[in-house]
TrEMBL record:
It comes from Neogobius melanostomus. The keyword Zinc applies. Keywords: ATP-binding, Cytoplasm, Leucine-rich repeat, Metal-binding, Nucleotide-binding, Repeat, Zinc, Zinc-finger. Residues 172-305 form the NACHT domain. This is Uncharacterized protein. Residues 39-79 form the RING-type domain. Transmembrane segments: none annotated.
Length: 815
């Protein structure tokens, strides 16, 4: 406990907490924003303005005239001497917070709560954001992240505001990203619990968790920051404005991705904790530091929503990567299984299945796996343990159904009853329809639309549960979601297959819709849906499509037969589906999407491609590869622990299309030779993502003889200007570069000047003087390390340009 927590009134400002700041000058932290026009003391136009940590603006003269020069500590003249957080208030608040955080529901299960400290497993949190988390579907991110060699030093969640030894900056706002179910909420709860129990971060006087899910419900209301805290934390109702203004407070805003608030950073300035405004404005002002400039702010978000916070307001970006190391995964399962032999069996099973091992980086998936495998090993079920994702999720559904029966004390065997099926299909319809619209959060109205009554949903606790449960009267509107996007995708796939299988029996309207959308055989539905998924740029339907394929497997049809309806697929058709997948045309489709074909085959238990590629990699690699083999190879190279020295597409004996399917392997190689491969914008997007990823391995990129005109160049530049980019050699011979693409190139290089050593621009006759001029700008940059710039002099049209170029080349110290 710090000295500020004594019972006696302490001065409002100590020299530590005094935040006396001129409007200009102090660049250590965010400015509290422009000052209001008048001084809060004399009421006249502000002269030589200064602000206090409580947010008041005064003329410097007014401030100094009110201060007692003999005192070493000073208070804000407007607030008067404040009170530090009273120890009784703090300790009662801590015990309320401790109670709230010490036990957690896993997944989103209601009822069964577990001690957080018992199950909490250290997560891998790193500084910075990798490219994957910002652009790809979460399921693919898991795979990419899972193979990353662990270079970046992890940060404990408790140290999220502590600068690293090499950093000399104050960290006021932290933005932590991570895919769904990776442990963001668990991290903030653990942080709060450790603080409340007095074991970590005791220099903070107050930790105030505010989830966006809750804030959504009051987004129409006007509050002051102080009343907002009172509303969400009634045990702090004694907290006064002065105390709040003078305490060291941390606000934790969890789940920005769920926010329905519009965070507008260009609007009004609020500087006082008692000033009323919209909730979104209170947050904006807290984040930009106008309101309570000394408060710390921790925001968590899924990647896609993180850009709502301007980067200039964030002092540290971090990423929760889940359980990256085998040790973390093992630790998680050891905590879950008390019987060490059972645990060994489970761990060795996960290691042997590629899909399960990749997915087990995500804690929520570990929970699903542990739930299923625990149930299976305990009940000594005969038969193999689930191998594929579809298999695992099918068992998960059955386990949860049995649990539901236990809660509702229904008695019946392990099979699905008609009532179970009806409920699950309603959930499936909700999942399917909302997935098509890209929604992951649902309200009562959405549930009613599919005929789901609320008691059903809450009884079905493991699958779809009332996730918003607070006793306060203002929180009477509930929000629902599936415990993980993958569960929504799985139920959506079940519903889709069911609709097809049962088309002759019921629901003619849906049948009609399905018929309109797709042709009538399941085989064709699978092709159509796969093609539809190719068009989603972030792979939103990838996992859904994988599950669709997996559900056609006989073993899964058997498990979920009651739900899926009479199977319309026999082994002959299944073989045709496999063949269709192998010869699927993916022209103009991102090669990342094509890789999903390979995953669909895995879900169908067809490992032939995998085997063929294993053999190919062991051979002299001269064998001709089909296009689907190329996708499989790209995937395997990308996931390999070893970074490939060289990826030369021309060295592979395959078609033009096959070569393009290999492009994703660029994410895991040092030297990429893409000469004359007809790369299009979608392929350059993959190359750019390789340059942006963390860590980025690519050092040499040869794009000779590909058309890199304006829009393609923009995509490439996006990668070149990433702080993660480490490219040393860039070859752009015969790339049809225009003056404007050269400008984009020069400004991208200028914004990130220190990595490139060699740039070859031969045979781009359209560059002309203005292109050269832009390059000169880059060359003059002090951090530019380029020592070889091929052929640029030949593009100078005027003698003047030639002279300026040669003089820049001669004077630059690096050449
Ligand atoms: N550190 C951890 N130790 C043990 N289990 C964990 C940990 N982190 C997460 N889990 C498991 O994963 C589940 C999901 O975690 P959490 O809710 O924190 O994810 P999230 O990143 O906030 O997801 P979302 O973006 O969907 O809100 C938890 O309910 C728990 O079962």
């Amino acid at each position: 406990m710090t000295h500020l927590l004594c019972d006696t009134a302490a001065p409002a400002f100590t020299s530590r907490s005094l935040c006396l700041k001129r409007l200009k000058g102090n660049n250590e932290r965010e400015s509290p924003g422009p000052a209001p026009l008048s001084c809060c003391l004399c009421g006249s136009v502000l002269r030589d303005p200064v602000s206090s940590s409580c947010g008041h603006w005064l003329c410097r003269h007014c401030l100094s005239s009110t201060w007692d020069q003999s005192s070493s500590t000073q208070s804000c003249p407007q607030c008067g001497p404040g009170l530090s957080l009273h120890s009784t208030l703090q300790s009662s608040y801590k015990s309320v917070l401790e109670q709230r955080c010490e036990s957690v529901s896993e997944g989103a299960e209601t009822g069964a709560r577990t001690s957080l400290n018992r199950i909490y497993t250290e997560l891998y949190i790193t500084e910075g954001l990798s490219e994957e988390v910002s652009t790809q579907h979460e399921e693919r991110q898991m795979e990419t992240l899972s193979k990353k060699t662990v270079h970046d030093a992890p940060i404990r969640c408790q140290d999220i505001f502590k600068a690293l030894p090499s950093e000399h900056k104050a960290i006021r706002v932290v933005l932590t990203c991570g895919v769904a179910g990776v442990g963001k909420t668990f991290s903030v709860v653990k942080f709060s619990l450790d603080w409340a129990q007095g074991s970590e971060n005791q220099e903070l006087e107050l930790v105030v968790p505010l989830s966006f899910r809750e804030l959504n419900l009051v987004r129409e209301q006007r509050y002051s920051l102080l009343t907002l805290i009172h509303v969400f934390h009634p045990s702090l109702k004694e907290l006064s404005a002065q105390t709040l203004a003078h305490s060291k407070v941390l606000f934790i805003c969890d789940g920005l991705d769920e926010s329905r608030l519009s965070l507008d950073f260009s609007r009004e300035l609020i500087s006082e904790v008692t000033q009323e405004s919209e909730v979104s404005q209170l947050l904006v002002n807290l984040i930009r530091g106008s309101l309570l400039p000394s408060a710390l702010i921790w925001i968590t978000s899924r990647p896609a929503a993180a850009n709502q916070i301007p980067a200039r307001c964030v002092h540290r970006f971090t990423e929760v990567r889940g359980f990256i190391t085998d040790q973390q995964k093992e630790q998680y399962f050891r905590k879950r299984f008390t019987d060490s032999e059972q645990c060994d069996r489970v761990l060795s099973h996960i290691r042997t299945s590629r899909s399960l091992h990749n997915m087990s980086q995500i804690p929520v998936f570990c929970w699903i796996t542990a739930t299923v495998l625990d149930h299976m090993v305990r009940s000594e079920q005969s038969g193999p343990l689930p191998q594929t994702l579809t298999d695992m999720y099918a068992h998960f559904l059955l386990v949860q159904t049995q649990r539901k029966r236990k809660y509702s004390q229904e008695s019946s065997g392990p099979e699905l009853t008609q009532a179970d099926c009806e409920l699950l299909l309603k959930l499936g319809r909700l999942a399917f329809e909302q997935l098509q619209r890209g929604n992951i959060m649902f309200y009562q109205e959405d549930l009613q639309q599919v005929g789901l009554d609320l008691s059903e949903a809450s009884v079905y606790s493991g699958l779809c549960t009332e996730i918003f449960k607070r006793e306060s009267v203002i929180f009477n509107k509930s929000v629902y979601c599936f415990i993980h996007l993958s569960v929504q995708e799985f139920l959506a796939a079940i519903y889709h297959i069911h609709t097809f299988n049962c088309e002759n029996k019921k629901n003619k309207n849906i049948l009609q819709r399905v018929k309109d959308l797709f042709k009538t055989t399941l085989e064709e539905i699978l092709i159509k849906t796969l093609q539809q998924s190719f068009l989603c740029p972030n792979g939103r339907l990838d996992l859904f499509v994988r599950f669709l394929h997996g559900l056609t497997l006989e073993s899964n049809q058997r498990l979920l037969g009651a739900l899926l309806g009479p199977s319309q697929i026999d082994s002959e058709t299944r073989q045709r589906v496999i063949n269709n997948l192998k010869k699927m045309n993916t022209k103009d489709i991102s090669p990342d999407r094509s890789i999903n074909i390979f995953h669909c085959l895995t879900e169908l238990n067809d490992h032939s491609l995998h085997q063929q590629i294993q053999d190919f990699l062991k051979s002299d690699r001269s064998e001709k590869l089909s296009e689907s083999q190329c996708s499989a190879l790209a995937y395997m190279l990308q996931m390999s622990e070893d970074v490939l020295e060289e990826l030369d597409l021309q060295k592979y004996n395959t078609s033009e299309e096959g070569r393009l399917r290999l492009v994703p392997a660029v994410r895991n190689c040092r030297k990429a030779e893409f000469s004359g491969c007809k790369l299009s914008k979608v392929h350059l997007e993959v190359v750019a993502s390789a340059l942006k990823s963390s860590p980025s391995h690519l050092r040499h990129l040869d794009l000779n003889n590909n058309s890199v005109v304006n829009s393609e160049m923009k995509v490439l530049c996006d990668g070149l200007q990433s702080p993660n980019c480490q490219l040393e050699t860039l070859i752009l011979w015969r790339c049809s570069l225009s003056e404007s693409s050269c400008s984009s190139l020069a400004s991208a290089l200028k914004s990130n000047p220190s990595h490139l050593r060699q740039l070859s621009l031969n045979f781009n006759p359209n560059l002309k003087d203005s292109g050269v001029e832009r390059l000169c700008d880059f060359l003059q940059n002090l951090d530019c390390r380029l020592y070889s710039l091929r052929s640029v002099h030949s593009y100078c049209h005027t003698l003047d340009m030639f002279h300026s170029f040669t003089s820049v080349m001669n004077t630059s110290p690096s050449r």
